[in-house]
Specification:
The chain contains twelve helices and eight strands. An eight-stranded parallel barrel has the order 1-2-3-4-5-6-7-8, surrounded by five helices.
């Protein structure tokens, strides 16, 4: 049912024009670049998309545009999350999910719910949504860590098919991989740790950097899944500098500058985010030229 999620998904950035409006030409270029680069699927309206700055209408227009440009080439996953469970359920009901294979829903941020609260939140989503659900744990952004125990408990629910795990504690990732149900997917949400997670038995990555280097990143994960870790790690070590640059001054500022350097779109962001410094942009340019 969700085997397409094994491999390399990319969390799409949202290109903007200088005036802050959505750059639909840039969106088209980005979708085509990822598709031609061989990625497994696209994730819309995640954190990297600056989705918290998009209005409801902009989200609808952006989704419609990506669906049209994608033209059924790649499976699509949509991000629907937040810290108001009732509002999320309403958004799910108001969204046309017929174009999507799964929902990615983040652990509620800011509210800092207990583990029981996290479970109850996702149980409501599981019972409401008509398509598979991917959990998303990213404590560095939400302020709350969903423990391995809570993840494994949620893995028993019928609609929850996997987790995008971006915790910094790799032991937690290993615990989930070790004790998960047979078909429960463990997908890395950390580009640098994606290959080690795959080597440990994980199923792939939802990547930020993968949209800047789709061919290289996709090949690395594919080799890792095939058991050729020696060749896969050679690619990872080659990409290590740009992985550091991409997150040095925050996401998506870093990836947007990379996309600019690759000729995909400009690097405009919406406040409170700002473009990377000139010195970091220079390092990014040099890496891409040398590559």
């Amino acid at each position: 049912m969700s085997s397409f999620l094994r491999g390399t998904g990319v969390a799409l950035a949202t290109p903007f024009n200088k005036d802050g409006s959505i750059d639909y030409s840039g969106v088209t270029s980005l979708v085509n670049f990822c598709s031609k680069g061989g990625v497994s699927y696209l994730v819309l309206l995640g954190t990297t998309a600056e989705s918290v700055t998009l209005s409801k209408q902009e989200k609808r227009d952006l989704v419609a545009h990506i669906v049209k440009v994608n033209d059924n080439r790649l499976p699509l996953v949509i991000g629907i999350g937040g810290n108001n469970t009732a509002a999320i359920l309403q958004e799910i009901q108001e969204t046309d999910l017929s174009y999507f294979e799964a929902i990615l829903s983040v652990v509620p941020m800011y509210s800092k719910p207990s583990q029981e609260g996290i479970y109850a939140h996702y149980k409501k989503i599981n019972d409401t949504v008509p398509i598979p659900v991917l959990l998303y744990n990213v404590p560095s952004r939400t302020g709350t860590n969903m423990t391995a125990e809570t993840t494994l408990r949620l893995a028993q629910l019928n609609n929850i098919v996997g987790i995008k795990e971006a915790v910094s504690d790799f032991t937690q990732v290993l615990k989930i991989i070790k004790d998960r149900p047979k078909d429960f997917l463990v997908i890395s949400g950390d580009d640098t740790l994606a290959l080690p997670a795959v080597a440990a038995g994980g199923d792939g990555v939802i990547s930020v950097i993968g949209q800047g280097f789709p061919q290289e990143f996709t090949k690395m994960i594919r080799l890792g899944l095939a058991g050729d870790t020696e060749q896969a790690f050679k690619i990872l070590y080659k990409l290590l500098p740009i992985l550091e640059y991409a997150f040095e001054e925050g996401n998506p500022a870093g990836i947007k500058n990379i996309l600019k350097a690759r000729g995909i779109c400009e690097d405009h962001l919406r406040l409170p985010l700002v473009p990377v410094s000139k010195s970091l942009a220079k390092n990014i340019d040099k890496f891409i030229q040398d590559l």
